[in-house]
Amino acid sequence: MSDDVRNIVLGVVAAGISAALGWIARTYLWRRKLRRKQTFFGLPQNSESLLVVNRDPATAEPAVHRFDVFALLELSALIKDCGAHVQMVTQDAAHQGFGERTEFCVGGPGSNRRMVAHMAAMLPGVRVNIDPEPGPDRGAFQIGSERYRMDPGITEYVLLARLTAGERRETRPVFLFCGQRAITNQAATRYLARNHERLARKHGSNSFVLLLKVINSQAYGPDVVELVADVTKVAQTALPAAAPRTSHRAD
Fold first, then answer.
1. Model pTM?
2. Which of 60, 157, 164, 180 has the fewest CB atoms lying closer than 10 Å?
3. pLDDT 10s per residue in the chain (251 long)?
């Protein structure tokens, strides 16, 4: 074998080895990223999850608002990316405990009975005004001593929570998307999809409750979202009998 042929063969072999090592490295990094995502969402490969669908309170018929449908689609994509399965149930048909499988619960207490139960059990420091009568406090959040009012289409709020019950390592989390309007529910799911890696690094497997502000949804839809505060501690602390309140009016 001449030197030229030998050099060509060695070059091909070296290129093949480099390509194989690169593929192995990329596969390892992809699998590690997937495992972190599965751990954060509590969705190991082929696991089961529950997607609780709310109803549109603006209609007497059993219907889902289109923005909530978009939120459900985004959550379904997240679940599929983790290699897990999903069962979708309506808010009045979810009659089971939590912790056995990951649950995604969409909609405020005015449209989702399941959300009412979760908030009573795990977020005693939060109150939501579900009075259907028009007024400045309609849909307002009270979190501890603070009150957050909405200005529809201009400034609206939504709670994004990852909650676990008990100390068992295998306990699956419950994700809550509790917004003042349907579009804010979608904003929260999109925020989670975009920021789950950062949230996983910051919170690990611990519970968290984030208050998000959706800005000018009438122009920007669910895309412009700001983190107002991490309200985990106050949201999980029961409200006193007569807590003083500070109102945050929409600007």
1. 0.83
2. 60
3. 576 666 666 666 666 676 666 666 666 565 778 889 999 999 999 999 999 988 876 666 667 888 989 999 999 999 999 999 999 888 776 667 777 889 999 999 988 899 999 999 999 999 999 887 777 888 899 999 899 999 999 999 999 999 987 655 568 899 999 999 999 999 999 999 999 999 999 998 899 999 999 999 999 999 999 999 999 999 999 887 655 555 565 55
The length of the chain, given as a count of residues:
251
Please state whether beta strands 208-215 and 155-163 pair in parallel, antiparallel, or not at all (unpaired).
antiparallel
Q: What is the dihedral of CA 75, 81, 86, 90, to 10 degrees?
A: 10
Phi, psi (degrees; rounded to nearest 5) at 45 = -55, 130
Output the six-digit token pair for 238.
């029961």
